[in-house]
Amino acid sequence: MSAKFDPRNPIIQLCMKGMAMEESGDLDGAMDIFLKAWDQTSDDYERFIVAYHLGIRQENVDVKLVWMEKSLGFALKINDENVRSAYPTLYLQIAKCYEELNDTENARKNFELSYSYQGKPTDTGPFFHGTKADLQVGDLLTAGKESNYEQDLKMNHIYFAANINGAGLAAALAKGKGKERVYVVEPTGEFENDPNVTDKKFPGNLTRSYRSQEPLKVLREINDWKKLTDSERQEWEEKLAKNKGEIIN
Question: In Å, what is the CA distance from 205 to each residue of 31, 116, 141?
Answer without folding.
Answer: 23, 17, 23
